[in-house]
């Protein structure tokens, strides 16, 4: 996966005056939102690197023959990394985020009271789905658990309807519920999905303008089918049917945001994507127009939910930029930058850790993982390419002596 940049997301800060963050060159690049103060794309600093390694043999002035990997150079300049702005470290942003988190929790807690018996199950699932896909679910673990426990109480072998008093299973609610409940380790069977799949699988009856609600239901069925266990025939059938349906319906969809969502899911598959990139893509689509995805969320709450998602994204990115600066200083001050024969991949290793572990509280892990991985890479290049046999024997003995000293000090 090539490195791409993500520009800071503009936050409206409804009802709260905050200083507008300065525009700065981002570390990763992604299509920015259309905003008054972010009108054009900022060119990416990265460039694609060749993955092949051309081995070469050189002879030093001392007459020593060495192998050189000819690795591509470090793509990230230390001065550039140190120049990154961390505008979202200001306390006012954290205070605003806490206020928005409280508002969203109040929305969760109000669901059992305000939801109608005809749509309460779907409303619970829809809110959980939104906060998870917007990347802010870590703030609402208790609320999500309560919402899913509520839905699970009404789950049957046939799935569920839109509300607790529904007498018939609903495809959209059942597919969405199946995906979320399975991901949260609730014991549910996929057999109930078979009732929604046409036996003849003849899709030629699609209308010139297919029903949008039906398309959303099939999209949720497709997303649910991607988390199948081995040999789950019902899931295989659901995936085959939903994929064919969506591909046939795609040219006839007038809603551009819904069309973008379907194209992205068909091409990449949310289950194999990096969660943070999935969140960023969803923010692009969700932020432009939520009418196709959020009919059960009132406009005021929708704005708060979107504001929190953008603010949280920027605050987390600011933390990670600071960590990257710490890592870059360590790399320079340790002298590793002077070892030109080895791969300089500390930034890539950090992004590897940050891609799957984004929470600020795991800062020590991300930095430690990147440092350890960089050191292992240096050792690998020393042993595999650069060092001679005699040098490696001496080097190995030195490492063993050092380890014995450390063990003795610990003991």
TrEMBL record:
Q: What name does the UniProt record give this protein? A: Uncharacterized protein
Q: Which cofactor does it need?
A: Mn(2+)
Q: Which residues form the Terpene synthase metal-binding domain?
A: 334-402
Q: What is the lineage of its organism?
A: Eukaryota, Viridiplantae, Streptophyta, Embryophyta, Tracheophyta
- One Gene Ontology term of the molecular function aspect: magnesium ion binding
**Highest taxon, organism lineage:** Eukaryota
* Stretches assigned to coiled coil: none
Instruction: Pinpoint the Terpene synthase N-terminal domain residues.
Output: 75-266
Question: In the UniProt record, does the keyword Phosphoprotein occur?
Answer: no
């Amino acid at each position: 996966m090539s490195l791409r940049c993500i520009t800071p997301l503009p936050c409206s800060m409804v009802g709260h005056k905050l200083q507008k963050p300065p525009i700065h060159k981002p570390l990763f690049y992604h299509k920015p939102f259309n905003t008054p103060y972010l009108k054009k794309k900022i060119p990416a600093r990265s460039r694609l690197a060749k993955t092949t390694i051309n081995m070469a043999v050189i002879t030093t002035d001392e007459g020593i023959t060495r192998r050189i990997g000819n690795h591509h150079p470090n793509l990230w300049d230390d001065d550039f990394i140190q120049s990154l702005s961390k505008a979202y470290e200001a306390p006012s942003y954290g205070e605003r985020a806490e206020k928005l988190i409280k508002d969203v929790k109040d929305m969760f807690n109000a669901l059992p009271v305000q939801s109608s018996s005809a749509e309460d199950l779907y409303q619970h699932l829809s809110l959980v789905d939104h906060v998870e896909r917007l990347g802010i679910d870590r703030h609402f673990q208790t609320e999500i658990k309560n919402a899913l426990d509520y839905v699970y109480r009404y789950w049957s072998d046939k799935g569920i309807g839109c509300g607790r008093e529904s007498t018939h299973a609903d495809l959209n609610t059942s597919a969405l519920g199946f995906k979320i409940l399975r991901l949260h380790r609730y014991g549910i069977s996929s057999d109930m999905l078979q009732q929604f799949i046409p036996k003849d699988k003849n899709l030629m009856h699609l209308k010139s303008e297919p029903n949008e609600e039906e398309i959303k239901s099939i999209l949720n069925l497709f997303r649910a089918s991607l988390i199948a266990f081995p040999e789950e025939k019902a899931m295989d059938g659901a995936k085959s049917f939903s994929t064919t349906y969506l591909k046939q319906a795609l040219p006839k969809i007038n809603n551009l945001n819904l069309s973008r969502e379907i194209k992205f899911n068909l091409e990449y598959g949310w289950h194999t994507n990096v969660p943070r990139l999935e969140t960023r893509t969803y923010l692009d689509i969700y932020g432009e127009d939520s009418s196709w995805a959020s009919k059960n969320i009132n406009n005021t709450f929708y704005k708060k939910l979107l504001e929190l998602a953008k603010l949280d994204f920027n605050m987390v990115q600011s933390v990670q930029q600071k960590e990257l600066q710490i890592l870059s200083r360590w790399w320079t001050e340790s002298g590793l930058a002077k070892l030109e024969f080895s791969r300089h991949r500390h930034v890539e290793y950090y992004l590897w850790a940050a891609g799957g572990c984004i929470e600020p509280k795991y800062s020590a892990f991300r930095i430690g993982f990147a440092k350890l991985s960089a050191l292992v890479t240096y050792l690998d290049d020393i042993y595999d390419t650069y060092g001679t046999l005699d040098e490696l024997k001496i080097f190995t003995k030195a490492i063993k002596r050092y380890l014995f000293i450390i063990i003795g000090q610990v003991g």
